[in-house]
Each structure stands twice: as C-alpha cells, then as structure tokens.
Amino acid sequence: MDTLHTIGFYVSTAISVAGALSVAFLPDRRRRGVALGAVAIGVAGLYLSLSAGFAALVALACYGGCAVLLAGPAYRIVESVTGTIWRQLGAIAAAGL
Questions:
Q1: Widest CA span of the chain, in angstroms?
Q2: 19, 27, 68, 69: which one has the fewest Cβ atoms less than 10 Å from its Cβ?
Q3: Which tens digits make up the pLDDT trace of 60-87?
Q4: How far is CA 85 from CA 21, 25, 37, 43, in A?
Q5: CB-based contacts of 23: which residues, under 8 Å, 6+ apart?
Q6: What does the angle CA 71 – CA 79 – CA 93 come to, to the nearest 5 degrees?
Q7: For the whole model, what pTM was predicted?
Q8: Residue in 69, 83, 62 with CA at minimum distance from that of residue 33
Q9: pLDDT above 80: residue 54
Q10: Exposure pattern of 38-69 as b/e (b: 16+ CB <10 Å)?
Q11: What is the 3-state secondary structure (H, E, C) of the chain?
C-alpha cells in the first residue's frame, strides 16, 4: 500500500470512529445527524483509500441519506422509554461485540 493511501486510510478510520461514537453519545438528534454525516465521509474515504470508488459513492449516498433523515424534523424518537444511560450502555455493548 502506498504511503498516501495508508495516511488516508488511518485518517478516514479516525473520522469514522469519532463520528460513530458521537452518534452513540450525543443527546441532540441534529448533532447525531451531523455525526452520521461524518461517518459517511469517513467510510467513503476508507473505500477511496482502497481504490473502490463505486463502493465509496454507494456508502456516501446511503449514510448521507440516513443522516438527512435523522437530522430532519419528521424523525421521531422515544426518549421516555429508553433513558440516556441505557442508550449509552447499549452503544458500549454493541462496540464490544
């Protein structure tokens, strides 16, 4: 692997992980939507560093669409049933898997 591809891979991985943790731990849905957009950019960067351009476009479209839906006003969440501590514990358990 080329040095530039290696740097791009690790930077994209860091963006993806930071965005995913932000999606799990941020309280506001708009900020979670922006964080999911960052995950989209990170995953697309991962695919680009592996020379998979079409997969990068598909991932960017899918994750970007989900980010727009999450940040939009029509998205409904149920916060009264699941508190923030359970969501955070679930995110940690999912990361452990």
A1: 50
A2: 27
A3: 999 988 888 888 777 566 555 556 777 7
A4: 15, 10, 24, 28
A5: 32, 35, 36, 39
A6: 90
A7: 0.72
A8: 69
A9: yes
A10: bbbbbbbbbbbbeeeeeebeebbeebbeebee
A11: CCHHHHHHHHHHHHHHHHHHHHHHHCCCHHHHHHHHHHHHHHHHHHHHHCCCHHHHHHHHHHHHHHHHHHHCCCCCCCCCCCCHHHHHHHHHHHHHC
Can you list the pairs that 64-68 forms with residues at least 24 positions away whose Cβ atoms lie under 8 Å?
64/37, 64/40, 66/36, 67/33, 67/34, 67/36, 67/37, 67/39, 67/40, 68/33
Q: What one-letter code names the amino acid at 49?
A: S
